[in-house]
Amino acid sequence: MGENSRVTQAKRDLLSWLTKSERRGWIKVFEQAFKAIDDVLRKEAGCTTELDYTEQTSWLLFLKYLDGLEEDKATEAKLNGKQYTYILDKPYRWEKWAAPKGKDGKLDHNTALTGDDLRDFVNLKLFPYLTGFKQRATGPNTIEYKIGEIFGEIKNKIQSGYNLREIIDHIDELRFRSQAEKHELSHLYEAKIKNMGNAGRNGGEYYTPRPLIRAIVQVVKPKIGERIYDGAVGSAGFLCESFDFLTSRGNLTTKDLTTLQTRTFYGKEKKSLAYVIAIMNMILHGIEAPNIIHTNTLTENLADIQEKDRYDVVLANPPFGGKERKEVQQNFPIRTGETAFLFLQHFIKILKAGGRGGVVIKNTFLSNTDNASVSLRKLLLESCNLHTVLDCPGGTFQGAGVKTVVLFFEKGAPTRRIWYYQLAPGRNLGKTNPLNDADLAEFVTMQETFADSPKSWRVDAKGIDQATFDLSVRNPKAGEDVAYRTPEAIMDEIALLDAESAEVLERIRALL
After folding, report:
1. Helices 371-383 and 339-350: crossing angle, nearest 10°?
2. pLDDT of residue 15
3. Neighbours of 449 (CB within 10 A)
């Protein structure tokens, strides 16, 4: 190696060391700030759950991010000899009300609001001002609309202005101007979402285990240029992991990066908290203005979906066990109160011909004998090639307490053969022993060739009962006992039959 080569290599090593050193510094600051914020929120009377902690951290992070975004755009405009028009008026910018700085670059305590003054400014001036952006925005995919949507749906729950000041000071320590900084922050934010999911109650509905999502993405293999959709977006885990999957390929052109930013990821979310978390999560992963719409996906009539509305890829874990109103059910050819069944119809309809789907659903969908379940299985098998069913063990979804399967299908051709895989990590899954990437590695590898093994097998579509279209997971190599239905499956079917009976009786009463 020549002298110049040794010098060049030394410079690379030094740069690498500095980058790693910087990264360690960021991680330490970020971790300390997040921990300090949670410690303050635990003292706050208005915040009692992990859901509250995540929500309150999210709106403050969003405003801090927005401030950095505007400053970057103003600097870019100035370098190009142009003038940048700020989204927020000066009194409502972070650097004015939240963290005014003195000449030394430190917080100016003489002008910084605190106590009741700070709380009243946020509640009576800031939130109403930001809410008004929804009416003034040119469309739902603009950053202005998202500002209005976020602040019109949530409220400041931090009742103590002194606690609020302390939290703002910690948020102000965070920097996510560079992609590397955003990357580190995104990991911490994901950890907060995971904690929220583990907290029980309704927190789990926003969180799908990331190893499972990554495996689904690896099987579906989205490509740059394809439009990827999740109509039950939750915390946007599927979209974020798809973004990471596509960017990890490397060698992306400027055109590719623009496509990923503006014309690749789409989602809809009904619940306010999940909407806010989804927006923030996607921003931290590097998507500046996420195409997430705050709406109830199921209110869209399937008959109104046109070719221009369709997507290349659907990735989702729709909520199950919920019940939709009868007027919502009218939007679907197969009418049922089960939310997940309505979502599955929506996903099949909104896929393009040749489009691919990876959808999590309760495993009882495969075997229930009520009319809706049978009709939906028939629709899936006849309109799509259901090529893979991943059977997930109990405990995959911490706190949810239900067994699930993942359906992988391609629209436009009927099912000929289904490959089943029973995921068996060899241990009981739970909060302290969660699913990991290694647990799913064999599945991802074997799925490429639909390999045969003690945990996998194939079923010919011709052998499926044409009256029930039963798709139950029955491993032919595991003995007859696996064919028995679980008590949970039986109870689910009873509940669905009861609901159907109630609807029939209601129609009869209406006719009398």
Report:
1. 20
2. 39
3. 8
